[in-house]
Amino acid sequence: MGFDADIHHRQSIRLRDYDYAAVGAYFVTICTQGRECLFGDIAEGVMRPNMAGGMVAEVWQGLPTRFPQVARDEFVVMPNHFHGILILTDPPAVGAPLVGARSPSTPDVGAPLVGAQDHDRAETRRAGTRPAPCILNE
To answer: pLDDT at position 26, please?
Structure first.
């Protein structure tokens, strides 16, 4: 089933004719399910990340190693969401294999979140988006 604004009560903010795999900078926001505060808390106006919040920061820092044509800019981890600026630096070669699309979403924890990948792919299909292609340089 595709995205239906009447059913999902949401309007797409995506530009219809824009190629989101194109070279450029992208502002990314990722929210926790139910906006539950899973990444830490705020005390006296300062974000205090917990272990999960620290893991989010580590994964962000490691993106260029895992995806060579991705550079990262500023980011901030909040108790229930994350903001970051990703920069796609090189267009992928035509027919290049996708890297990371089926890898665990939590590689450093020891086990992926149960069902997380399937849910992510279903949400991606529903939203009409696709993962940014990446080339493995190993």
So the answer is: 92
In tens, the pLDDT along 66-89 reads 888 899 999 999 999 999 999 999
CA-to-CA dists, residue 101 to 7, 19, 130, 138, angstroms: 28, 19, 10, 17
Q: Is 12 helix (H, G, I), strand (E, B) or coil?
A: coil
Identify the CATH number of the domain defined by range 5-127: 3.30.70
The bridge status of strand 46-49 relative to strand 70-77 is unpaired
* 3-state DSSP assignment of residue 116: helix
Domain extents in the chain: 5-127
Summarised one tens digit per residue, pLDDT across range 43-64 is: 999 999 999 999 999 999 999 9
Assign 5 to helix, strand or coil: helix
Task: Fill in the DSSP letter of residue 124.
Answer: H
Question: What is the C-alpha separation between 78 and 55, in angstroms, rounded?
Answer: 13
Prediction pTM value: 0.60
